[in-house]
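Exercise 7.
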Amino acid sequence: MLVAFAAIIVYPTLPSLEVLTDYQPKIPLRVYSAEGQLIGEFGEERRAVVAIDAVPRQMIAAILAAEDERFYQHGGVDYVGVARAALSNFVSGGVRQGASTITMQVARNFFLSKEKTLARKFNEMLLAFKIEHNLSKDEILQLYINQIYLGQRAYGFAAAAQIYFGKPLDRLTLAEHALLAGLPKAPSRFNPIANPKRAKLRQQYVLRRMRELGMISDAQLAEADKQALAMKKDIKEFAVKAEHFAEMVRQAMFERYREDAYTRGFRVYTTLSTRHQEAAYTALRRGVQEYDRRHGYRGPEGFVDLPAGLTDEALEDALQEAANSDDIHVAVVIEASPKRVKAYRRGGGMVEIADDGLKFASRMLAKRASPNQRIRRGAIIRVQKGDKARWQITQLPAVEASLVAIDPRSGAIRALVGGFDFSHNQYNHVTQALRQPGSSFKPFIYSAALEKGFTAATIINDAPLTFTATQTGSEPWEPKNYDGKFEGPMRMRTGLVKSKNLVSVRILQAISPQYAQDYITRFGFDPKLHPPYLTMALGAGNVTPLQMVAAYSIFANGGYRVTPYFIERIADARGDMVMEAPALRAGEGAERVIDARNAFIMTSIMRDVVRVGTAARAMKLGRNDLAGKTGTTNDFIDAWFCGFNTGLVAVTWLGFDTPQTLGRNETGGRAALPIWMNYVAAALNAVPEQPFAPPDGVVAVRVNPDTGMRMTDANSGVVDFFYQEFIPAEEGVASAGLGGDGAPEEVRNQLF
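Solution. The predicted structure, written as tokens, is:
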């Protein structure tokens, strides 16, 4: 009577079941590539909601055998089960069995705490009755299958199948179904990754219960019991390594939806190409490591004291503070000599390194090496498989790098690698790193000069100059060329192809730094970061790689400014579109910011940079449709290459987070260009060459390469491109208002 009275009092106060009837699980934010492949996931709960009809019958049988065999017979509370559990616990002298039904677990998971009190248990039973009265058995079971926690941040059996086995529920074996069905009782204790032995015992219990209940045969039990537990510890969680890019998406979604971004099941479809991203990631890692190896081995990362009796557990403990970096593994040295090193690799057992694998670190294996740098027992080192699949000693690079590539016709980001390893450095060097661009900024000054009436054949003197502190805005300045040499008068085209600093300074002096500062805003640069001094000619301002790739896209697409973007569309949990990117393309809504003739002539000059200039090594790619410009800052602090064709623009940068020299001769052409080349080789593989067609108003004229004057002999001189109104005069004939080489009369004295 007392229990009945309590039920009458408490039942009306029970919570509404709206949360069950309108089930809205916390589904994480998922980020997809342009091809629809998963590249990122954000949210506390990893969940994949599945309808009861899509759950294999064998999975359901395993769940019922493990948790609630009489689920379809009882009304929410299994009195037979309660009696059996009470008897078992009395006989064993402790709490060995519970009596919670699946319905009661649903009540607890959605509405109640996990405290073990009589009041909570009483409310749980009443809620179970209420749930059974309002929902069908299949609806209750569907809620349970999607809501229950199964370890590894996995909520629901569909998510757990992917996380533990890397495949959907309908592709699991009986043994795998039984293992998952055993997890709800104690997800941590029976976690097959952390506790495989306990997980196996729990799986065997579930299989035995299934056999006792007639759900499987003796043969099925025997076969499932023999199946080895093959957990996907190293499963590739995402299609490609794109953590910096996925983080950009996460930030954008949080700004738009705040905390709801992580729970409402948004699916973000991005512009990222998995093929391009894989090429970019591989190229950047390779290029950074090649630079790092040129500058020698720095020694072990640290040292630990190893006990005499080594176990895998002790060795794993010694490495717990360090993490692997993709294929660069952390290891602790067990034995070391100049000819052989034996080390334990984190999570992967023993490796032996000898012969060529020791070359990089040979200096630190010699006895004369200082104790704090010598590779010896207890040293923490890095190992990696080389080209011949043999282990070699390597190290984590101290230098950083970035690569970003976009479609210049739309601004869609196709690849973005913000640094060497996101897990070690989350700083996005593509979007956040303001660095000096060096000579890679010169094309914008040259473009400004074309608008002032200069031509590619304007003759400019490559000769010494000296400036006062007033002229530079800081201190007296005597600019030099990279090679320290001066070559005298040359065409403006040659000045950019050879990256002559004195030519660039004279051009800026002629058009005025104030004009150039205003002009570069057309390319999206912030004028405040580019003070109007002559040092602007050599890239002394500050830019990000993302700004540079957007600016170079204007040359590539014929003069239109497109904004880099990375989200194509956003869908909600039901698949309905909630946002689509506007379709602004070059020539189709995008703003024209420079003359098409200007873009073409600048592109033709930068094609020569690749053909015969500072980026000539790029001709190894075997393509004739590439253009670009190298960039190196003072003291070799930053190395750049910005390159493109009409369908792709890519920018690579390499430098230290705390600015310091990269080393003598570590120019953009040596340090950054190889990364760009390796990316482009893969990204443009099998893509036909895309010619740069001259627009209306551009004429090809033969000129004297020494004077820039027009030649009438069709077999003499070299061909250059000009605005129709700025064709140079014939040799020996002066044109009105222009110098003989096409330079405005009022600035000729500054060019020489």
